[in-house]
Amino acid sequence: MRINHITLLVKDKKRSEDFYTKVLGFDKKESEDYLWIRIGYQYIHITDNSGRPVKNTFYHFAIEMDDLPEYVKKIRSRGVDVFDFSKSRLQSFIKDPDGNLIEFIDTKDNFFK
Questions:
Q1: CA–CA separation, 68 vs 48, rounded Å?
Q2: Any idea what DSSP says for residue 99?
Q3: Residue 90 lies in a domain
Q4: Whole-model pTM?
Q5: Which structural domain range is residue 13 located in?
Q6: Is residue 54 a part of any domain in this protein?
Q7: Cβ distance 19 to 96 under 8 Å?
Q8: What are the C-alpha distances in Å from 92 to residues 24, 33, 102?
């Protein structure tokens, strides 16, 4: 078993598409009125028709990746504010344009192994 996708509420689907594809570098898959962002074998379902985004919470999802420090350098160069609650080089956080919190975890982090 694994998680197939999560759904994020956004105000502006096109702005979110640009952020997740052009800034973060993920692939997209479109289906009718839906926007899907592919991360490995899982997806983020982006929708703007199911309510309003929730801000200022610790609700988040996490993306595991190799060489997190290099990825952080890349997205910082694209203007993304990267922060870390734990002051660890193995995890970092960002917010998307709607304030959705995203955590990045380096594959070297053994907590989930």
A1: 30
A2: -
A3: yes
A4: 0.87
A5: 5-48+59-112
A6: no
A7: yes
A8: 13, 32, 8
- Position 52 scores a pLDDT of 76
Task: Name every residue whose Cβ is closer than 8 Å to that of residue 72 and which is 6 or more positions away in sequence.
Answer: 82, 92, 104
- Cβ-count burial 61-91 (b if 16+ within 10 Å, e if not): eebeeeebeebbeebeeeebeeeeeeeeebb
Confidence at residue 77, expressed as pLDDT on a 0 to 100 scale:
96
pLDDT digits (tens, 9 = 90+) for 72-112: 999 999 999 999 877 767 899 999 999 999 999 998 888 87
CATH label of the domain that carries residue 35: 3.10.180.10
For residues 95 and 59, give the distance between their C-alpha atoms in angstroms, rounded to a whole number: 11
Number of domains in the chain: 1
Looking up tokens 């989930």, which residue turns up?
Answer: 112
Distance, CA of 68 to CA of 79 (rounded, Å): 17
Residue by residue, DSSP assigns 14-71 as HHHHHIIIIIS--EEEEETTEEEEEETTEEEEEESSSS----SS--EEEEEES-HHHH
- The answer to whether position 92 is within a domain reads yes
| pLDDT score recorded for residue 109 | 82
